[in-house]
Amino acid sequence: MALNIDEKIYQQVSGNLQGFDPLPDGNYVVMVEESEVRENKSGNGYHLALKLRVQGGPYRNRIIFLNQGLTNNPISLRHLKNALDAFNYQYSVNELDQYASTLLDKVVVAKVTHSKGEEKVALSQISPALLERIQATTMQVAAENKIEKERVVEWLENKYGIRVNAASWIAAKEAILAGEFRVTKADKDNFNEETEEEEYYF
Question: Over 90: is that where the pLDDT of 103 sits?
Fold first, then answer.
């Protein structure tokens, strides 16, 4: 008997079946890891396939898969436009197969809901208010790890120039937690801002 199991994939998956539980309803700050136009399995059309990784909170590193159909159905087109608007997509929708890669590393909010056993994901841009909260969270993590604000700002400027956005602030927080700033705090668990406002995981 000749098995055909991909050893690389086998080593990457978790043996904990609980890891496959659906994400609870909520708002998740996510980054695009994969973005491409693929042919439907049925061969009757195409879809935009997105792999999104949660950036923080108790569900950090969980994956959200979003497949958006590319048809002339008005409802499908409405969902497609919503997703592309979240990414500030600048090209023709008919050129999506060529420019899907421009969505890589973009950071957006994924609102996850469940209805009748079906998971729905709606994307939206990072609002200025949420960006301020992400900045504040990063600075609080820095303070907890005795990292001066000026060092974080300097790191952001050196790495990202003037393009300081949600992605770069999240990267700064992760760098602090990972020890890139010579963090001395023993406990490097993820920090999730507590707020009475609507909760976002970042």
Answer: yes
Type of residue numbered 108:
V
Q: Are strands 26-39 and 46-54 parallel, antiparallel or unpaired?
A: antiparallel
Backbone angles phi, psi at 120, to 5 degrees: -120, 140
Q: Would you give the DSSP letter of residue 87?
A: T
**pLDDT digits 0-9 by tens, 154-188:** 888 887 776 678 888 888 888 888 877 653 333 33
Q: Domain residue spans in the chain?
A: 21-124, 128-191
pLDDT digits (tens, 9 = 90+) for 39-87: 988 888 899 999 999 987 788 889 999 999 988 888 888 999 999 999 9
Residues 151, 114: Cα–Cα separation, whole Å: 42
Task: Specify whether the CB–CB gap between 170 and 190 falls below 8 A.
Answer: no
3-class DSSP state of 27? strand
Reply yes or no on whether the pLDDT at 123 is more than 90: yes
- For domain 21-124, is the CATH number 3.40.50? no
**The tokens of 116 are what?**
């009748």
DSSP 23: P
Q: Determine contact, residues 178/87, Cβ cutoff 8 Å.
A: no
The H or E element spanning position 56 is none
Phi, psi at 145, each rounded to 5°: -105, 15
